[in-house]
Amino acid sequence: MDFNSRIDEAIRINIYGTMKMFDLAKQAKHFESFLHVSTAYVNSDKLGLIEEKVYDIGIDPEEYIESLMKMSKEEV
Predict the structure, then answer these.
(1) Which residue, among 41, 46, 50, has the nearest Cα to 1 in the 3D structure?
(2) Cα(71)–Cα(76) distance, integer angstroms
(3) Out of 25, 26, 37, 44, which residue is the most buried by the measure of CB atoms under 10 Å away?
């Protein structure tokens, strides 16, 4: 993964790809667990101590992703 790729490409790979794998795992008859490990960069706008917690981003992430995915390549 290129950390400088367009956001829509990153969403397709990192979010939708993981969701598809999870959907596939749910179909397995004897599947007991699903583990996803990510190396994503997060909270890059923060300075100083960055705690291991979920920070409020001020917008609904699902709505934001949906609006990004509706944009043309030029708009993104």
Answers:
(1) 41
(2) 6
(3) 25
The full DSSP string for 9-67 is HHIIIIIIHHHHHHHHHHH-TT-------------TT--S---SSPPP-SS-HHHHHHH
CA 23 to chain centre: 16
Give the span between the Cα atoms of 68 and 76, in whole angstroms: 7
Query: What is the pTM for the complete model shown?
Result: 0.62
Q: CA 19, CA 74: separation in Å to the nearest integer?
A: 26
Give tens-digit pLDDT for 21-74: 989 988 988 888 888 877 666 666 778 887 878 778 899 989 999 999 999 988
